[in-house]
Amino acid sequence: MRNKLRVLRAEREWSQADLADLAGVSRQTIHALEKGKYDPSLPLAFKLATIFELQIEDIFFPDDVIEA
Amino acid sequence: MNEKLDERSKREKAFGAAIGLVIGAALGEVILDSSLVAIVSMALGAFIGYRYMPRVHLMEYPPEVVTRLVLSGVVFLIVMLGAIYYLEDETRDTYRMVIALAPAIPGFIFFLFMADAISRLDELQRRIQVEAIAIGFGISLLVSMVYGLLGVAGLPQVSWLYVPVVMVFSWLIGKLWIRWKYR
To answer: Residue B72: which domain range?
Structure first.
């Protein structure tokens, strides 16, 4: 699965640690998510979507889907 | 938010410096047996730890969890070493069974606290710990089994007390491996 976390975070000028604090997870988790090394659980994906005020599918998408 | 980050960064730097000091001292005094090397390596270790520790992704346990984990670990270690010291002298023949069993109580409390600490980690860090424990279990099983068979074949028999040491090292190897996977 791929995601737009890095782009969304950069648009808001947040550091990984800022986003980690908002999502209640470690900086390591945000780093692994952005690198595509780890796919989040559904509750974490919902939490991230809430933080960015977007739908989950606006942030996360399958590998075979071309990013909009 | 920035104050919180500054505080965390300071904590990580202090932790890194402390770890650097301990490693430097161990390297200089214990391994190379030189006070001069110890002082230099402590200074270097403290600098490297201070400078680079905030870049390392540490397991993020709440402070109170760390405190009770460290305290229970220290108590467990002291009781364990005390029991070994007492039991090694075979002329001491009173309460040997009781003293041999004594470390089990702080050990059980320590492992309860450890399980509690792992359950408080976030989903990725918990996964890293669990995968590392699985790898550690596999490696220690293999090492114990292979050396056990080599012992039967003629190599010197070693104490069962080495098994926990092998388990801890195997778990650390597993942790490094899994952290690298999610780097």
So the answer is: 62-120
